[in-house]
Amino acid sequence: MPLISFLEEFGLDAQLIDRDREMSAGLARAHARRALDADSEDTRFLHGLAAATEFRRAGAHSILLSDRCAAVGHFREAGQSYCRLSNPYGLLMFACAEYSPSDLVASAKEFGFFERGASDRLQLTYLLLAAAAGGWGRDDFALQHQAISGSRASPIGVLGLPVGAYLDLTHALATGEPDFLVRTLLPFLMAHSTAMTYAMENRHHWRMMAMPFHPAEPDILSVIFMVEAAMRKRGDKLVSGLLGMIPLLPASANLLHNAILEHFGEAH
Amino acid sequence: MIIQQVIKGISGLDDLAVKDIFKTGIVCNWWRNQPKGILPRDRIPEKLTERNLDWHQNSYNQPDPLEGNKKFSINTPYISTTAGTVERDVARRTNTLTPAWKIAFYFATDGWTSDGWLFYCHLFLIGKRAVALESFSEELRELNIYTGFSPYQPEGEIAGKIVIPGAQIERGDFWSLSDAQQALQNGKLPFPVRSLANSNFLKPDAYNNLRGFLI
Prior knowledge:
The structure holds 2 protein chains of 2 kinds. Chain A has helices at residues 7-10, 14-37, 41-64, 68-84, 89-96, 101-110, 113-116, 124-133, 142-148, 163-175, 178-201, 203-208, 218-233, 239-242, 250-263; strands at 155-156, 161-162. By secondary structure, chain A is mainly alpha-helical. Chain A has one domain (3-263). Chain A has a two-stranded antiparallel ribbon. In chain A, β1 (155-156) and β2 form a beta hairpin. Chain B is built from 6 helices and 12 strands. Chains A and B meet through α2, α3, β1, α11 and α12 of A and β7, α5 and α6 of B.
């Protein structure tokens, strides 16, 4: 069954999400236009980031609505908006836009992240993760690893996962060992389950989706998609099998499971 | 004391109702739902509590055992407004601005389903918790005051109490949903269609601490 058919069960309103998606996409385009016309760097940055945020929200809404085509379009726009601002976080958006791991590395090259680095040191975390998913080894990025090794405890992203969690996953991807991957992916799955548990307690705001955490949280889904794609390239399906084995909130497991199926074109 | 500009979004009003609000103020649901519209002032101390403020922010539509399991929202003594917020985004190493108008517009249109009014008001803050003091609003968005985690903090909420008097409401802006959608389709940010000024509004210049010289 498509993800959209579970929304009522999750306490969400498909029509409201559809309306909000339209507004977010419209606001994203309006901000993108302002960024293009901006005559100062600050204004360009502010509107560029606002555009990226709104495209990201429209993309996540599209996942919930099982609208794969729109999700790809919105996440591609979000990725380009972030990357234009020298934020490798955009690579995670590309992962949601069905870019293959090797496409992610090509995008990182296209935006000059390998030569110029990122707008900020912590942003290197996302570059390293995308590179590892694309098959690059740790030795290829020794300097970047060194640059953020002292920030392992720093929280990043909407859910505040530590940089160390991303770096461990990067290491696991490089080794390709399934047990290591499962162990390093668990914090991401548990973070989604926990965030969803607490967000659902406030039924009014949950239904209105008036919160920064999104049920189809791109910070989590992008990581899952990258790991799953990397494993499938090696002939294995890791995450979809794993979800049934860990005691996540059932709604969280159900959502992630269906999002994976739809992302890889396996939904019935 | 800080005089804080906030926005309150309300749907389903005509011009007459807006002008009424300019006189009576924006009242909380608890008062509005009283029989004959009479406020039981003797119950205010038991209503303005930390517990109810937490329910207002985090359990708004849930059954309240203190009110016969009716939805908490029916009897809330607080009035949600927004002043926008800046959300610290460590990952993207930036502070993300959520403008007040966007949040107020979303709630004013009841989730993008109708036209709505945005009321521009002034509330009084004292930079710390003052839950039992009716005159001062609670800055729920301020993490240095309300340190507990709330997933809804980025709404930028400032909670008024019992009533926002007419003298503190500057104007009401009418936002047409279809016009806003049209603007967005043309790649422009939306804007209000028209505005009603409140002649009962008292400018903060008249009562703030700036003492003018004699002329």
